[in-house]
Design a protein that fits this description.
The structure is a single chain. This protein is 35% helix and 26% strand. The protein is an alpha+beta fold and 378 residues long. It has a 9-stranded mixed β-sheet. A 7-stranded mixed β-sheet has the order 1-2-3-4-5-16-8, with helices on both faces. A hairpin with a 6-residue loop joins strand 3 and strand 4. Helix 7 crosses helix 10. The protein starts with 8 loop residues before the first strand and ends with a helix. It holds the Pfam family FemAB. This is Peptidoglycan bridge formation protein FemAB. One of its GO terms (biological process) is regulation of cell shape.
Length: 378
Amino acid sequence: MSEPAPPLSVRPLSRAEHLAFVAGRPSVSHLQVPAWGEVKQEWRAEGLGWFTPDGHLAGAGLALLRPLPGLRRYLAYLPEGPVIDWFDTDLDRWLTPLLAHLKEQGAFSVRMGPPVVLRRWSADAVKAAVADPAARRLGDVEPTSYEPRAAEVAERLRRAGWRPSRQGGEDGFAAGQPRHVFQVPLAGRTLEDVHRGLNQQWRRNIKKAEQAGVKVVRGGREDLPVFHELYRETAERDRFLPRPLPYFERMWTALTAEHPDRMRLYLAHHDGEVLAAATLLTVGEHVWYSYGASTARRREVQPSNALQWRMLCDAHEEGAAVYDLRGITDTLEESDPLLGLLRFKSGTGGEAVEYLGEWDHPLNRLLHKALDLYLGRR
C-alpha cells in the first residue's frame, strides 16, 4: 500500500518565488503571472503558493480579489488557474487549504478556471461541423480526441462542493474566460508543415498580401495609440465595448517589465497606413493572440492574414509549442455573428479546444446567491 501524499499548506508567495515557479514550467496562463495583478487594478492581487511540510513549492496561483461595495468581503478569482496537479486523486489536499486561506482574506466566494483540456476537434472536424445543418453546437459533434481524466476532475470538484460558473464578462463582478479556444500546435512541426496546414483561402490571402506590399512590423509602447484607434473602429463595427487606451498602456508597462517579450505589438502597413494591428502575449512555450484590430479600408490586401502569419512565424522561430488564438463560439448557428470568427480561426489548420470551464465555491451562501442574482440581471 502506497504512502499517502503529504499535506499541503497555502501561503502568500513573493514575486521572485512566483516568477521562479512560472519559469520552471513549459506553460502557465498569462493570467496567472504576477504582472497580471498589476494590469487588473480594480482587483487586489495576491500570489499564492502550495507548500509541502518540508517547504517545497508544489503549486502556485494568482488570486484576484474584488470587493463588494461598502463591505470588506471579496469575490476571489483565479483565472485559468491555479497551477497545481489537477489529476491528483486527492484533489481536496490542494483545494481545501486554498479555500481556507481565501476565507481568512474575507472571500465570500471563490471562482477558478482549471487549465484542464476536456476535448479537441481538428480543423477538418470543425469545418464539417459548420457545414452540418444538424449540428447546433460544437459539443454535438464527435471530438477528434478526448481526455477521460478531465471528467474525473469535474466529478472530484462536484463532490467537494464546487459548481460550474454562470459565465459572464471579465469586468465588474462578472469574471469569465472562454471555455472554447482555437489553438495551432507548433511543437514538432516545421514552418512548412504549419503553412501546409493552412486552408487554401488562408494561403491565397497571405500571398495576396505579400504581392500587394503589406509589411508587418513589431511596434513599441509609442505605437499603442495607433493600435487603439483601429481597435476603437473594430469595436464600433463589431458592436462591443472597447477598453480605454490606458488599459493597454498599463498592460505594456506591467508585462514587459516582468519579461521584455511578455507582450508584443504587431502592425500591418500598406502604402504608409496601418491597416491592422494585434497584441501578442508569451509565457514559456505558449503564445496567445490577445487583442486584434483592423480598419474596413483596403481589406482586399488582406492585412489580417499577413499579421497572423507573421506572428505565427515568430512564435515558431522562438520555439513555441502552441499558438493560441483564444476564444471561439461553440454555437454553429448561421445566425451567430461569431461564426465568421470561428471560420477565420479554423483556417489556420489548428484545433478547437474545450477546457473544463470555470467553477465556483460559495463560502458565504447568502452573498454568493446575491452575486448570482446580480449577474443574472446583467
